[in-house]
Amino acid sequence: MKFGRIAPGQAEGAVLGHSILAGQRKFKKGHRLSAEDVAQLVDAGIDEVIAGRFEPEDIPEDIAAAQVAQAACGEGAEVAAAFTGRCNLYAKVPGVALIDGDAVTRLNRIDEAMTIATLAPYERVSPGQMLATVKVIPLSAPASVVDEASETAAGDTPLIRVAAFQPHNVGLVLTRLPGTRDKLLKKSLEVIKGRLESLGSRLSECRTVPHHENDVAAAISELRAAGCGMILVFGASAITDRRDVVPAGIIAAGGEVEHFGMPVDPGNLMLLARHEGTPIIGLPGCARSPKINGFDWVLERLLAGLSVTRDDIMAMGAGGLLKEIPTRPQPREGDGGMQDGIPRVPRIAALVLAAGQSRRMGVANKLLAEIDGKAMLTRVLETVVESQCVSALLVTGHEADAIGALADRHGVPHLQNPDYEQGLSTSLRTGLAGLGEDIDGVIVCLGDMPRLKPETLNSLIAAFNPVEGRAICVPTHEGKRGNPVLWGRRFFSAMKDLAGDVGAKHLIGEYAELVCEVPMDGAEIFLDIDTPEALALLTGKPSDNQEKSA
User: Fold this and answer.
1) Which domain holds residue 305?
2) Nearest residue to 231 via CA among 191, 266, 273
3) Are residues 383 and 481 in the same domain?
């Protein structure tokens, strides 16, 4: 890439390296300048811009990041749309993150233009949690670098995968000594049961026996006979030696102790054993607490179908000082895409407004008009359902029964706006009131935009990041703004206060510093159908008005 200061007259097609204000318009970093943009810069008296021009071997940052992210994405993971040279990977299923750490290092050593950052290997993840981010540092990367990084990311197996938790029937042995309180046994049972259920498994059998190896052995045999695929042994007293009661009971039952102790604190006194393929774990005393400890690291891997060997346990020391981990910071109010301080996919809802009376269309309801064999509204509903929006809601008004029936066919819930004749603001208010409290933002979709694509919505979601100042995401094509717009939750209150037949467009001007323009490839973001002539132009069929004039 050629990068430096360029006179506006020679800047058409260049990509801005820094944001610049030209009159009332702010062009942001990464924006590709069109001829119209150049004219605005000249009219505003801008003498020069700092920008880059792509050379034949350059791959633009978003395309480069997406290519490498796709190569790195394996089973149980998914790739979000790229934005500002960044492409994130997220977990599709609950499980354990499988990260090839050596491949991560090799990829990051290829060239300074290409980076990847991931979670630590074997970290427990939830659906929607971020696994990794691929970031192209400059505005483009050489094709040779992107190809090598993609090959490294793909490897024999993809660099990033998720081993999904598999349901297990687990047995538990609790031992008691004279003086062991029933309250302690009950607490141990409840904590273990809760741990297993959070991982998709269940405690199917429990035996409480005296703290003696013969009783432990008998209980293990009973649990194996009952079909338990894993057995946990919680001694009334912590295991202090390989020859202690719990390991002795495992051996007496026919099992084999593979390893005692682990370099993780809390969790040092954990014991790993096996009986003909059935894993048996002697629990450390800290397992009575729901706080994370070394036992969790072993349990999570086993329930995800991964093997755990003594070498694996011995390798857990780096990062194993768990008692010193501070509480994760809570996200600030309005920070979408965070959960307990952990990045996740923003929870964005799609709000489809379909209450209008279509006055300019005449008698017919334009939303029910067929386009290529499907109702116009059906095409919009298909788009939102196929997108990465976590939920969708439709607002009805005029001809509510017919409109609601279309929504029902696509599994989209709908609300009736009783005040729809008073204008767009009432539908917006009705829809926002129906969204869940866990929603980070909403894409307000118009029901008369039949060419809208799921990729458009996904690109808006990828751009959304209130922490980085991108709380309103607006699609653009060749420098012009269109619809739909993604609004962060912080604007919901102001949007509910609107009145009349107006939307929230004025808020874009009031909060210009929080607006992010998201370039789109196509002009469908401008296409809405308001008249019979516009519908005829789209379908290629003459309107009633055209037929009469003919």
Assistant:
1) 169-324
2) 273
3) yes
